[in-house]
Amino acid sequence: MQSRTVSTDVYKHLCESAYEKHAEFETLLLLSFKSSFFLFFFFRYPFIVDQKITEPDWQVYIRNTASMMVSEQSPKVLLEIRNRFYDLLTRSIPCDLIFRGLLKECIKNCDDQLKKEIIEVASEYQHKMIRGSKPIFHLEAFAARFMTIYKKYIELSLDSFI
């Protein structure tokens, strides 16, 4: 009977830590918890209190997409990014979650002035995406605009050193 109580406490702790990790995204929480719980239950049972919660594959995919946008700004990379957006959308990842995750990862590499500009552009494209019917167009347009702004920022930074 004692072990059952411990399992319940551990399960409650895992639920709380999953919620804390993904509290900002409502739908993300549900998707993440379902996939994480499946992995925990079948591959990592019995539960332990300080067990690491795995990140869903699609979140890693969005992070990698954002790093592609930051690492190189070219039409070739933009085409690869568009294909990655199609992959995410065909796997039923909501476009709003893709957009927010992408923005969150992209602004990690920017200074405060650039963050302000990127967030303004992002709000414009996210609004258009919500109002429009084809989210892929708005996701790609944001990616292209971000890459353009970021490339200009890098070039200006390099010019100031010369």
Describe this structure in words.
The chain has 162 residues and is mainly α. The protein has 2 domains: 2-43; 57-161, Zinc Finger, Delta Prime, domain 3 (Up-down Bundle). It contains 7 helices and no strands. Helix 3 crosses helix 5 (95-106) and helix 4 runs antiparallel to helix 7. It is globular and about 60 Å long. It starts with a helix and ends with a helix.
Number of helices: 7
Number of strands: 0
Indicate the percent of residues in helices. over 70%
CATH topology heading of the largest domain? Zinc Finger, Delta Prime, domain 3
| Broad CATH class of the largest domain | Mainly Alpha
How much of the polypeptide forms β-strand, as a percent range? under 5%
Number of domains: 2
Spatial shape: globular
Radius of gyration: 19 Å
Overall pLDDT score: 81
Structural class: mainly alpha
Please describe the biggest sheet, giving its number of strands, its sense, and whether it closes into a barrel. none
How far apart are the first and last residues' alpha carbons, in Å?
Answer: 72 Å
Describe, in short, the structure shown:
The protein has 162 residues and is mainly alpha-helical. The chain contains 7 helices and no strands. It has 2 domains: 2-43; 57-161, Up-down Bundle (Zinc Finger, Delta Prime, domain 3), CATH 1.20.272.10.
